[in-house]
Amino acid sequence: MFTRTRRLRQSATLREMVKNVSISLDQLIYPIFIEEGENIKEEIPSMPNQYRYSIDMLKDELESLRDLGIKSLLIFGIPKKKDEVGSEAYNDKGIVQEGVRYIKANFPEFLVITDVCMCEYTSHGHCGILNGCDVNNDVTLEYLSKIAVSHVKAGADIVAPSDMMDGRIYAIRKALDENGYINTPIMAYSVKYASSYYGPFRDAADSAPSFGDRKTYQMDFRNSKDYLREVEADIEEGADFIMVKPALPYLDVIKTVSDSISLPTVAYNVSGEYSMVKAGSLNGWIDEKRVVMENMYAIRRAGADIIITYHAKDIATWVKNGEIKL
Fold this sequence. Notes:
Blueprint: H1 12-18, E1 28-35, E2 41-44, E3 47-53, H2 58-68, E4 72-78, H3 95-106, E5 111-116, E6 130-131, E7 134-135, H4 137-154, E8 158-161, H5 168-178, E9 187-192, H6 199-205, H7 226-237, E10 241-245, H8 251-260, E11 265-269, H9 271-282, H10 288-302, E12 306-309, H11 312-320
Parallel strand pairs: 1-3, 1-4, 1-12, 4-5, 5-8, 9-10, 10-11, 11-12
Antiparallel strand pairs: 2-3, 6-7
Helix pairs in contact: 3-4, 4-5, 8-10
């Protein structure tokens, strides 16, 4: 006799009964780009339905997200001024800091996570302080620590360092603790590859490097072993969440990381992944809802506990309208 695995797929009710991978809106984090200035709501050309907002234009968007059941936000800032040391990143009145204060004062129900990096703030577009044509790792740690403390002082619930400097989790944890923020978690971009999938984000955040690339600090996707060293180091240094970025090309990495650690595993479904789905949908080549949900379930099945995704608002809208069921 051969095995009849189809028996458990005979009806929608049966399939619902035996499924063992689920998704909740509580597990989704929605990124938002906040730009310094006024009266700004500017669509990002390479990311349809994603916008850069000035603080005075955030209210309607935050009300919409709240009403849809989105609870967690990842904040990126776009300043007016950039310089060699990214001074606006740690300015207590900088765009992220003021954005966080606005959200916490008017929408305290949101969990606010802030991206801690320097690429949006430096005139050269690299993720730290330059030493010639490369980033000086140890000097950069001092600046990242100042940025993190400034964000938490403004009201951030979680800081998420994305720079990929060695030792930055230890430096930030130490700085937060010394300033009395012992209970503020760190969501570490632990496994962040030098990926071509970030292209649309660099349009969104004006963060493309003015020369060279980031391959000396972001990870080489041709190496299948070094990511566990990154994860182990960040856990030892005090990380509370471990992130893998991008998501879909690295499901094997998400799986291994998730199986290897007891901390929550976060996957970042990045801009290029989002934009490819949107482009396919706008051209009528794919069914957007089905492809998005298949991608989300793939990321969850690989082991991600939390997904950062630009699709979060669409997913919440489809659920509210009864177009999909989670």
